[in-house]
Design goal:
CATH superfamily of the largest domain: P-loop containing nucleotide triphosphate hydrolases
Strand content: 5-15%
Number of domains: 2
Structural class: alpha/beta
Number of helices: 14
Radius of gyration: 21 Å
Number of strands: 5
Largest sheet: 5 strands, parallel
Bound molecules: zinc ion
Helix content: 55-70%
Amino acid sequence: MTRYRWHIVGHLPLLEQLEKDVETENVAHSYIFAGPPQIGKHTVALTMAHILQCEQGFCHDCVTCSQISKGIHSETMEFRDDGETLGIDAIRDLLNRLYLTPSARYKIVIIERAERMTTEAANCLLKMLEEPPPQTLFMITTDNILELLPTVISRSRTLNFQTCSSAELLDFLSLEYMDREPKTLELACELSLGRPGVAFKILEDPDMMEFYTMLYRDINRFFAFNNIFERFAYLQELIEDSNKVGIFLDIFTHLARKKMIEVGPGTDARYLALLDKIIASKTALRQHVNPRLLLENMMLSF
Ligand SMILES: [Zn+2]
């Protein structure tokens, strides 16, 4: 059981760890919340900010709580992921604010998807971590910790977030969306692959529901195609939208694992090789390798 109201799906051991850090006054200067996208890392960081800044430990009611929720609390600074890189100017500006503004409680800096930082910006952040301004807490989230500077990692306390189990996600959705059909909630849960952020999007937006359902169905069909031309034709459509490629690979991984379990031992090698290829493709995609070559190569290998 947690002491504070986190309102988050899963991650219980990590929340307990953070609460323990607060209670024992052992809060780190810098935390890294690492793990797949859309699983609640930013929400945990924001709730931790509430707990530390609010006089009553996140009462949901006071001026501080309301300012943090609206993103206008002067001592809780958020760098939300806007899809852009995070440059040196933004980090320098932050540095000035941290040293100049006096603070009653904490000065909290939340950097979402810190791998967006340029090398210069990351080095500037590192300087701050080496000599942290007093009462300052950094919470850095990342979808891929390998893209952060090793020196940033070594100066931070890392918490590794995992995707949520279907059971805990479904429980949460049932309480949040009481007016929805259980079947719809189960579908959203399955399509999200254990990522609450994705499940919420699917439930809030009918277009997203349709998009995910189609992608799921297409990939299922994909495994049935034995004709490489059919596969290539589908890929051709897919790569026209770069956002889709990442989601495609996630669902593809999930279904390949599922197939592997269904098929059982003996024919594992083919799926294992495919899973290796998918993982390699995801890494290459982040390094801006041509997605078409990558996906075609993957398809040829199974
Ligand atoms: Zn409050």
